Amino acid sequence: QQQALVPVLRFSEFEGEWERNELDEICEKIQDGTHFSPETLSNGDYKYITSKNIRNHGLDLSNIAYLSEEEHKKIYKRCNVRYQDVLITKDGASTGNVCLNSLKEEFSLLSSVAFIRANKEKATNQFIYQLILAPRGQAQVKGVKSGQAIKRITLSKLKKFRFHFPSLPEQQKIASFLSSIDQKIQQLRQKVALLEQYKKGVMQQLFSLALRFKDEDGRDFGDWEEKELKDFCTINPRTTTLPTTFIYIDLESVEDGFLVKENKIHHSNAPSRAKRVLEKNDVLFQTVRPYQKNNFYFDRTDSCVASTGYALLRTKENTKYLYYSIHIPSFVNKVILRCTGSNYPAINSTDLSTIKLPLPCIEEQQKIATILTQLDQKIDQARQQLTQTEQYKKGLLQQLLV
């Protein structure tokens, strides 16, 4: 028996089944940008939006190009994006990213982006945006992507995307409700970004000595020293055997200081790069592509072994201070200057060991570590709130839509 076309979760004032339509049946226009390569400018009156500017949470204008009025008018004549049209990426790694146009000015699109404009008598842009963003919409994106080197959605396939639509009033109610959650998500993203920016400023003040602490008697701490890493750290301490089973930490396991992947393996299946046996309070420094700064402070007691893509740092100084100090720009820049290789620039442990770090007394190290740890805890708490809200919305999308 065919399942009724109604959502699991529904506002009480609505009833009846939803209708299935292709996008081109309920849209006024679906069009992509220019397939030519106009000459871009570093500044100007007309923005040039490409796939890199489309994020699921909105337009990212941090890296934007511009066009002359003449070039813009050629493109806009064919591709006249309006305020609140749906924008979707058609090409590249970000294929399927979708947002609503928040700009009230004219701009041009590259062919890697298309816009969707609903027929106002049949659908709303806001509802279509939520449909494409939902798991079922992203499954359609994945199902029609083609190409070898570059994945893409053709405009003709985009027009044939199929969704279920309720009446206009129900579309508006659902879109408005989901939009309120989107606003909460955006607020949390801003909170995380502001906290991260604040932490960056605090670190700059601490390590430039613009901000200093005093001891318990109110006296200034002594001058800082600059020491080579090898003078106060053991780098890659020797280990004879691996644990029987352990969590293997490779270069994809750590992001922004967090262990995002835990792959438990038996030592008999361990890759040859599994060499760094960790002890509590060790620090892992990413030696391959170190500009990514995916370093890790190990505050655990279970068995973990890291890849040789990391240098293992063990110190009798304050370990948390060491962890924060390897992220300061002056240290990272010195590391990058000593890297070899183009695709995967890396630094060897010997060169790493000779790089100097600023080192205050152990008491001031502790105070610096404490204040930065507290900031990290606030950032982590905000990130958790963001993740929970995003998961909450994802569940709602599955229940509110057919």
List the helices and strands and how they pair.
Elements (H helix, E strand, L loop, with lengths): L18 E4 H4 E6 L13 E4 L4 E2 L2 E2 L5 E3 L1 H8 L9 E4 L8 E3 L6 E3 L3 E6 L6 H9 L1 H10 L10 H5 L2 E4 L2 H40 L17 E4 H4 E3 L9 E5 L4 E2 L2 E2 L3 E4 L7 E4 L4 E5 L9 E3 L5 E4 L2 E6 L3 H7 L3 H9 L11 H5 L2 E4 L2 H39 L2
Helix pairs in contact: 6-11
Could you explain the architecture of this structure?
35% of the residues lie in helices and 22% in strands. With 402 residues, the chain is α+β, with helices and mostly antiparallel strands. Strands 2-10-7-8 form a 4-stranded antiparallel beta sheet. Strands 13-22-19-20 form a 4-stranded antiparallel beta sheet. The model has no long low-confidence stretch (mean pLDDT 94).
Number of helices: 11
User: Could you give the count of β-strands?
Assistant: 23
- Taken as a percent bin, the fraction of beta residues is 15-25%
Compute the average pLDDT.
94
Concise structural overview:
The chain has 402 residues and is an alpha+beta fold. 35% of the residues lie in helices and 22% in strands. It is elongated.
